[in-house]
């Protein structure tokens, strides 16, 4: 899940090669880097086999970074969002000064998820439900407003969060980065785990910060190193459909 630091140094065409990101060209003739990956194999010594689909979002779909200011529709959309939401723009576009709470997310080093990607996400979640798959969503920017600092949220996080809540019987967790000091919240509305992992660059040598995630039939174990905390996340919220989805599916 590439982010702003990658875009400070490389265009998307080079990131596709260096990071093996399967960018696609939308009708706007612009590169976007969202995709899915299915892991289907026996877990540890369990007799059952869990199918886990990773959905990697491109939170720099609509953004200023590496989008042409003259020809890019997505750059124009980002420009209009920041012009409306951030009084410091364009002179000091990365400053959240005079913004309070979640509106502090409207800064130049952030971005949003465009409509075609939202449609792909919903379709992918629907297919995962039909196929009996469990889903982990990965994104550079965090999605839940209580998981970390508001300056780091996806600009239209509400749209993404709403979809996750509708498919909480499918989604195990959402993993992200971007907020260097990390964070965690379990969404009260859905039970989905939202974990923002600590950045390795915040750890002075010889500290090495990273995590390994082990997946079992009923839980995920995060084995943190350095400044990354270990934790265990159960799947209890996946034992039932949300009432509105149950009613919808049985009408």
UniProtKB/TrEMBL annotation:
PANTHER family noted in UniProt: MANGANESE-DEPENDENT ADP-RIBOSE_CDP-ALCOHOL DIPHOSPHATASE, PTHR16509
Highest taxon in the source lineage: Eukaryota
InterPro entries registered for this protein in UniProt: Metallo-depent_PP-like
Record's protein name: Calcineurin-like phosphoesterase domain-containing protein
Molecular function terms, GO-annotated: 2',3'-cyclic-nucleotide 2'-phosphodiesterase activity; ADP-ribose diphosphatase activity; CDP-glycerol diphosphatase activity; manganese ion binding
